[in-house]
Fold each of these.
Amino acid sequence: MAIIGSGAGGGTVAQALIPLATQGRRVIVFEQGGRLEQAEFTGIETEMAESLYEDGGGFLTEEGTLSLAFGRTFGGSTAVYSGTSLVPSARVIEAWAVPGLTHEDLVSRCERHAANNGVHLLPPEQINDNNRLFREGCLGIGLEAEQFPVNVRGCRGASLCNLGCPNGAKQGTDRVQLPAAERGGVEVVTRAEVRRIGDRRLVIRVERPGPGEKGAASAWPAGEYSVEAPIVVVAGGSVGSSALLLRSGLGSALPRLGEGFTCHPALILVGEHEREITNDVGHPKSYYLDRSVEERFVLETCMYFPFVTAKNLTGFGPDHSTMMRSFRRLQMILALACDRATQGNRISVDRSGRPRVHYRFTPEVREALAAANRAAARIFFAAGALRVHAPLANPPLLARDEAARIAGRITATAFIPGKTSISAAHLMGGCGMGSSPTDSVTDSWGRVHGLPWLRIADSSLFPDSLEINPYLTVMALADRTAEAVLEDAGRLLANRGTGLS
Amino acid sequence: MLGRVRRPFRALVVGFVPESADLSADEWRRGEELAERLLSGRPGRVRRQVTLLILALNLIAAARFGRTLPALDPSTRSRLLTSLQDSPLLLVRRGVWGLRTLAFLVYYGREQGRAAVGYRASASGWASRRSPGTGAGEGREP
């Protein structure tokens, strides 16, 4: 059996399929990225981004107006997220209207995986000023922020979650599911890119590490392999899974393949305080404000690194430098739009099979981002900020005496694709669930329509955006995929030897 | 790759991050290595586009102001970059956005660039902020 990808989906499936490995079936996880030693997590922005993310975290859409961040390493994006662990809302799951998928079922699976990964609320003494000020600012404008449950154990407050925890505190699949799977007999082959899927056969290219590249060599010698696998679970993430199936020629039988891409496009805002605050120490993401129902946005606390911060502030030159030099006094908020699956926003592949993501910003997304900018600016000022940098203000700097004029200063018209720095890290859709090939790629158990041996187990399954941080929902859906695989394994593996050759 | 367009590229970096004018030769080398490394992971067509864009901006500067990018005074260079950033053509805005990203990488991607803004995150987290009296918000180790 082959599992492609080792993130929230692949890692979960790997652990769930230990019973098959115990029975003597060969179960292998193929991960495109490398596997780093703990000491290699240095927290240095440029070198970690290059080692842990596809395109260093700056994968550009075809329009060149949105950069996408997704992991490419042992543990996938669970190695580089901040560990925020939310259960999806009944409203969203019911709106998905996937036959056979209920909110109750997802919640129970989410709760089990939250317990498995040590999810809890940080105690107040571990909340830094950047997060505390967000909560106070929300209260100041009459809104109540909620605290993120996070999956950390022994967090020392390095604040480097998005560069891979240097202390191994974050309980992603790299720390929990994959080690458990390996102990249970599942193999993990890193630096292994699955190029194509044929009829129960994979073409895999294993690379050796480049000069100076972090991470151990693969367990398999470098080279190209053809592997027979009677069951294939694809969990390469929204972009990776969709691209793999597309370059494998499955697009004609599955017309919805690659469609329905959403990503919660996000802007970074900063507020400058009079005094230094604790911002680059402590867990970076403790609170959020959910306005998805009322205004189609979510605000989250965040704290990024100098280069990422610099590129996400609007403009350049002396004003930009001045804001950067007040880094120790900066409070930071991430403003995410709850986008909807829209025709044209999709994943395709180029002639070489490399993924291409097509994404245009709808008027609704622009309005949601503007509303999110306005709310964030009010929160900053309510928390005592002297100045606010809002990408959708023109000019982007708002002084405190402009606090009463936020509505007029921040508008969607200031959103200019190609000028406004915007990124996304919650990549969803492309292999959406549904009832038939005309409306979807899989059923609610991740079974690809018409190909019973091929399953999906990642965020590509989402038929529309989730409107919250997705990893716990990915685990819940992957758990369903694994359950269906275990149910069907006897039939699919009959007369197939050890299950992989 | 940047070697062929080094002078105009450095002029652009200084335009985006004025304090980079004070970088030593060694610091320029380190910053440009970061940019080269980023570009080396991109498809060949993207690398060619970056080179062409730098050359094109140099020509635009010469055509509009009679001087190439390195010879422009800072305020004229800034005006040029601002006008291009606000161009009605998406292709031009995208190009400036990309060059701006490279410039920030050159400056803020270096250890000295991080230090220059006071960035201090480290693996030791709260434990590294124990020293009393180092400023408001300090010393709140849980």
Amino acid sequence: MASRPSDRRSAARTRAHVAESLVSLAVWVSVILVAAVFVWIVGSVVVHGAANLSWSYLVESPADAGRAGGIGPVLVSTLLILAVCLAVSVPLALGTAILLPEFTRGRGWFGGLVRRSLDVLAGVPSIVFGLFGNAFFSLWLGMGFSILSGGLTLACMVLPILIRTTEEGFRSVPDDYRRAAAALSLSHATTLWHILLPAAAPGLIVGLILGVGRAVAETAALIFTSGYVDRMPASLLDSGRALSLHIFDLSMNVPGGEARAYSAATVLIVLLLVINLLASGMTDRWLHRRIVEA
Amino acid sequence: MREARGPNPFGVPALPERPDCCAVRDPLVQVDGLEVHYGSHVALRDVTMPIHRGCITAIVGPSGCGKSTFLNCLNRLTDLLPGCVVRGRVTLDGQEILNGHVDVVALRRRIGMIFQKPNPFPLSVRKNLTFPLRHHGIRDRRELESIVEAVLQDVGLWDESRIDSTCRR
């Protein structure tokens, strides 16, 4: 049976319409699923953990293996480990990310090798970093179980992510700016500081947030390097228990510690949120100052 | 040129008689056998020409014939292009500029480049103008201000940029 052209056209239109609806349905379902999983995880942690939260919980020392008391020393250790990690990794990452493109221009193989190694390093399981940190920092360099060796191990872990995202940030700066800067005979340092860094800053911040997230969430690598001790650290050479390790210990090794594990997890999530907000807020302000004012 | 002008049908005032600044040929830049490759593509081959002090030199040709490439060679902006190989000799005041020991920042202070497409930095208008000046040693705030005003007046953007900045506040 021959159909009229107008019938065929409207049939095609209906088919296109159905396909359109199906695609948007699929998109919506996946979006809602992802959001639901996030809300579920965060919600259950906060619901279980909010009961114990109080100022004294944040500042007091743990008691009864963590079943009572607070997480004051744990928080301090966590922040110290993070500080050591960032103080070492951020300058190294910046330097590498700035030099890497220069190297790939002249000697292709060397830059390629560094890049390939970084990608492999980024995929190495954290427990391997932990063992390396234990062998190298704790034993060979004699730092023992300490905040210093934990922070340095985390720095090794975070470096690949930081370098690659920073490099991507620099790469996303239009070449026009580099050419314009060169044509004005600006020096490398000036170009870098005033033009490239601000333009690349969004990339740097993404890297920083990913890196901090990985570092704060890290447990396996810290078991072997910064240790379990939950006393207030007196120096960077003392052992200190990180928040993630505290959660792990409470939920796995301490019978009846689950409620407190949830509380610690809530604090960890809030800490991550605060760090992310601080990082983006600080860049905004920094960039604003650089760009708008003379 | 000047001799061939003849009667002036459009009422344009005649140029004042001045000594021909190009009467004395004094090559400031000398280009010898310049050759530029982008990978396997040859952009320029065997370019030899003098550029005289005090003269305006125009380079004319169809799009893509290598005019910009030639200009880029004169202050080593070709360094920034990946895969670009430059051979030959270019001298400025008798000094070779294509070898690796040349201080390119100093070279580019003497040979500037204005691009066909305007490419300002992502900064304010004022900062775009003052920041290179500051870099080259002009730090006096009043001097900077007067330069900014003068150049913006020259290109007819002074009023517009002022309105903009008051709106932003």
